[in-house]
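From the pipeline queue, job 12 of 40. The input is one protein chain; the requested action is below.

Action: predict structure.
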Amino acid sequence: IRPAQLGDIEDLVLLENTSFATDKLSRRSFRHWLTTEHRALLVAEVTHRIVGYILIIYHPGTRLARVYSLAVLQDYRGQGIAKQLMLAGEQAASDGGRLYLRLEVSVDNTPAIQLYEALGFQKFGIYRGYYEDHKDALRYQKRIRRFPDVLQHRSVHWLKQTTPFTCGPAALMMAMHGLDRTYQPSREEEINLWR
C-alpha cells in the first residue's frame, strides 16, 4: 500500500472502469484528487501492478473523513486487499486529525457490508436512490481516533434548540451538560437563558 502518484492515473482509470458499471470516477476526477489537499488516495500494488485503491476525502473545517471510493480488481478480490486498504486509509485519516470515518455502500453489496462491519463500522442511516442506478445506500460510521477524557476533549450531548432563535442558550446548555452530567436541560431554562 502506498500513496497514489500522478503517474498512476492510467492504472486508476482502468481499475475504475473494470470495477464499476455506474458512479465511476473520471480521469479528470482522479487528476483533481491527486493534486488537491484534504484527501488520502492510496493504491495497493502486487508485483508492481496496481490492483486496488481507496480514496478518502477530508471535510475541511471538520474532524470528519469519508471513504469516497474503494475498488479492487476482480482477480484479486477475496485476498484481504480491500481490508488492507481500509486499514491504511483509516490510519491516514487518523494521522490527518480526523475523528470519524464515514462511508456509503449499496444495500446489495454484501461482501463490502460484511467487511465494514467486521472493521467496526456501525450503520446509522440510509440514502434512498443514492446511486446513478437508483439503488439505496447504507451509511456507516466509525470513530477512528480518541482523546483522553479531559475537559477539552469531553464528548458533549447534542441538544436541539426548541425555537428558531435560541441557538445560543441551547449551546450553553449543551456545555453545561458536558461539565455536569447530572444537569438536565429544559425548554423553560432555554427560554430563560435567552431572556
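Job complete. The two ends are 57 Å apart (CA to CA).
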